[in-house]
Design goal:
five-stranded antiparallel β-sheet, eight-stranded mixed β-sheet, FAD/NAD(P)-binding domain, alpha+beta
């Protein structure tokens, strides 16, 4: 079947990068068709934990962290706006996140923060045991009083529900007249007779005016099949774990090193355990990564509830009821945002917006803004 969207810009990918790009381009007046399956099993967007923690960062030193911080603040403003426009609830809370420390470690960190490091780059509170217990309310009832812990509290951090955010974005795009095609794109080809582009899927060929590839880790196959000039691509996979939680009246977001831990709406989420920077994983690799994440999950849970609750069922369900999801992410030194030509027809090409790795939800909207500006200028810059 050959279908024409001759005046449309096609966005390939229905993850957070694709949806945010489509929204920004539609707001600029472009006609948009989105091509891609809604929930890919290995999609980084659909497996995200949802903890948005800058750990008090105010003045980032690198560009990627500047984009991450900008995206963090954009999320806090965008979510209520989307709720108002779509009348959909997106569970979220940006009233603070915690980082727990044992009493002896906390003391050393507190002295270091106040006496050795410039604190103007960060905004957070040092909470001793009693202050932390007061902050956490009902959660503090589960603590082991013999294992006193203190915390750093980051008042601008928090969490959001990724699936609800993605669903609201899709609904908003539908309200704006965006067309969704639930098929996976396989190849992009230049149309010989004019400047149109052809997108091939398993069952159809779509004729469009312009293409934006925003398919995350799936972008490589599309670019390879399309004979598009591309940089080297590497991959990383991680696992996010979810299980039920008996305390459903409160929410708690925790950042511990590179790990995040979220309790909300009767569910616990923990992520993530990296597997390797490779594309293919054996069942043994996945089993080992899942076991490592379960151990990490238990450790982070113990940091909140104390050791006496680690192996009991008062708050957590059993390990056999834990659901783990693997996500594949494309990595690089920095995101790809720009224009890339066909090898076979250098005058034609596609726009690319991907490679955000684990910063996808943060960098999605700043990246979409940058791509929209590039497209409007029609200067066809190389990938940057």
């Amino acid at each position: 079947m050959n279908t024409s969207f001759a005046r449309h810009t096609a966005v390939i990918g229905r993850g957070i990068i694709g949806l945010s790009t489509a929204l920004r381009l539609r707001e600029q007046g472009l006609l948009i068709v989105i091509i891609g399956r809604q929930r890919l099993p290995g999609s980084a967007s659909w497996a995200a934990t949802g903890v948005s923690a800058m750990r008090g960062l105010l003045q980032p030193k690198t560009e990627i962290f500047r984009q991450k911080l900008l995206g963090h603040h954009l999320l806090a403003r965008l979510i209520p706006e989307l709720e108002n426009l779509t009348k959909q609830t997106i569970p979220h809370d940006f009233s603070g996140a915690y980082e727990f420390f044992p009493r002896e470690t906390y003391g050393k960190l507190r002295r270091r923060v106040y006496h050795r490091l410039p604190t103007g780059l960060f905004a957070f509170k040092c909470l001793n045991f009693e202050q932390t217990k007061t902050h956490l309310g009902p959660f503090s009832q589960a603590w082991d009083e013999g294992d006193k812990k203190a915390a750093f509290f980051y008042p601008k951090d928090g969490w959001f529900d990724p699936e609800s955010l993605m669903a609201a974005l899709e609904l908003r795009l539908e309200q704006l007249g965006v067309v969704f095609i639930a098929e996976a794109a396989d190849k992009i080809s230049p149309e010989n007779s004019d400047d149109s582009l052809l997108i091939s899927t398993e069952t159809s060929i779509f004729r469009v005016a312009r293409v934006v590839v925003a398919a995350g880790a799936g972008s490589e196959n599309i670019l390879k099949n399309s004979d598009i000039f591309r940089n080297e691509i590497s991959y990383s996979s991680g696992i996010t774990m979810r299980t039920k939680f008996r305390e459903s009246s409160s929410s708690l977001a925790i950042k511990s090193g590179a790990d995040s831990w979220l309790c909300t709406n009767g569910e616990l989420r923990c992520g993530g355990e990296n597997i390797a920077a490779a594309k293919d994983y054996s069942p043994g690799d996945l089993a080992l990564a899942e076991e490592k994440l379960k151990n990490k999950f238990s450790r982070l849970s113990a940091e909140v509830f104390g050791t006496k609750f680690t192996n009991e069922n008062q708050y957590l369900f059993t390990a056999s009821e834990i659901r783990a999801g693997v996500r594949v992410r494309m990595t690089g030194d920095k995101p790809w945002v720009g224009f890339s030509p066909f090898r076979s027809k250098p005058g034609a090409g596609v726009w690319i917006n991907c490679g955000y790795y684990k910063y996808g939800f943060y960098a999605a909207f700043p990246g979409a803004e940058k791509l929209a500006a590039l497209i409007q200028s029609s200067s066809h810059p190389v990938i940057q």
